[in-house]
Amino acid sequence: MAKDAGDERLQTLAEMVEDAPCGMVVTDPDGRLRYVNETLSRWLGLPAAPADRPSRLPELMTLPGQLYYETHLAPMMRLQGFAREISCSLKVRDGAPLPVLLSGVTRYDTAGDPVRFDYTIFDARERRIYEDELRSARRKAEELAAIVRTSPNAILSVDQSGCISSWNAGAERLLGQSLETVLGHPVQEAVRFDEQPHWFDDAVEACRAAEEVTFETTSSQGHHFEITVAPIDEQEPLPATRHYSVVLRDISKRKRAERRLQMALGEMKHRVKNTLAVVSGIARQTLPAEVCHGFIARLHALSRAHDALASEDQKGADLRDLLAFTAEEAGGRERFRITGPSVVLPPHQATSLSMALHELATNALKYGALSQPGGHVSVGYEQDEAGQVRFVWQEKDGPPVTPPTRRGFGSKMINSVVKSDLSAQVDFDYRPDGVRCEILFTPGEAE
Fold first, then answer.
1. What digits encode the pLDDT tens for the residues 103-134?
2. 3-state DSSP call for residue 400?
3. Whole-structure pTM value
4. Domains by residue range for the chain, with CATH
5. Which distant-in-sequence residues (6+ apart) come within 8 Å of 212 by Cβ?
C-alpha cells in the first residue's frame, strides 16, 4: 500500500511539472538540455522526437538572448548559484518570438560542484505589453510636462476650493511670482483683475454647462489677457471635487495690433470714400447727363459694399446686409422681399455681388416689376450642406416681359464679372410674368 501511495504521489508530481503554468528546463552546467516540460514544448512548438529538438538552452533563444546567456547568465549561475527574472525572448516555430522571464537555480553535488541548472520560464507577453504601454505613457507625460514647463503662457492647476496647486515657469515670468509664494493660496488673490474680481468663481459656474470657458480681461497694469478655464476630467468627475486648469495668455501685443489695424482701416475707409466722391464729382462735370446718373449710381453701390466690408473688420460682408442696401434702393421692404439665412461673403465676392444687385435693381426700376406701383421683387436664397448658395431673384406683378434683343452693360457685367469672381452659374429666365435670375455659387471659392 505504501508503495502504491508513493507511486501515485510521484505520478501526480510528474503531471504537475509537465502541465505547470510555466516552462521548466533542466540543463547541465554546459547548457545542454536534459529536460523540457510539456508546457514550454507547447509554447515553442518543439518537435516530438528528442533527436529533432535543440540540444542546448541557448539554441532556444533569439540572438540577443544567446549572447546574454554566454556573457552573463551562464557565469551568473556558476558564480552566484541563481538568476532572477532575466528578460529575454525564445524562438517559436512558425511564430513570433515569445518574450519570457527566466529564473534559475544551481544544484550542487556533495563536493560543492555544480551538476545541474534548473530554470523556470514565465510567459511575459502581457507584461511586455504593459511595460511598452507604461513607457509610452511615461514618454507622453514627459513631453506634456516639457510643453507645460517651457510654455510662454501661464498654466495653473487649481483645486476644488479655488487654491493654486501648481504654477509653471511661464506663470512666474508672466505674473512675477514664484510657486512658493502662491502655492495653496486662492487663485483670485494671486491673480487679480479689477474689472472681474470673481473671475474664477464665474468661470467654474460657467463650466457646468460647457467643456471650457474662455474670456478676455485687463489687469490693473493695463495688460490684456485671454484666460481659459477647464475642468480636469481625469480627477473626480463631481463638480464639488474637480480640479481645474487655468491658462493665461498675454494678448497685449495682439490688442495693440488690432487697434493699429482699426485705425488703418478707418483711414482707408475715409480715403476710399473721398476717392469715390472725387470720381463722382469728375463724372458730373465730364459725362453726359444720360450716362452720368447710371455711373454715379454704380459708384454708390460700390461705396455701400465697401462700407459693409469695412464694418466686418475685413472678414467680408453678410449677404443680408447687401440685400438690405438693395432694398433701400428699390423702395423699401414692401417692394423688395427677402428670405434667407446669414451668409458671409469674402470681400471680392461681396463687392461683385453688390454691383450685380445694383444692376438687377436698376433694370427692375427702369423696365421691370419696380417700374409699376404694384410690382415687387422676391429674393430667396439658401445654403446646402456642401456650402453652395442658390440665390433666386424673381420679379412679380410688373409689366409683361419680352426677351431682350441685345445685351446691355448690366447683363454683360453680371454674366462676366459675377461668373468670374464668384465662380458662379448665372441663369436668366425672361418669363412673361417677371424676370427670374438664378445664381449658384460657393462663398469663398474663387479669388
1. 999 999 999 999 999 999 999 998 888 888 98
2. coil
3. 0.46
4. 2-127 (3.30.450.20), 151-250 (3.30.450.20), 255-441 (3.30.565.10)
5. 228, 229, 230
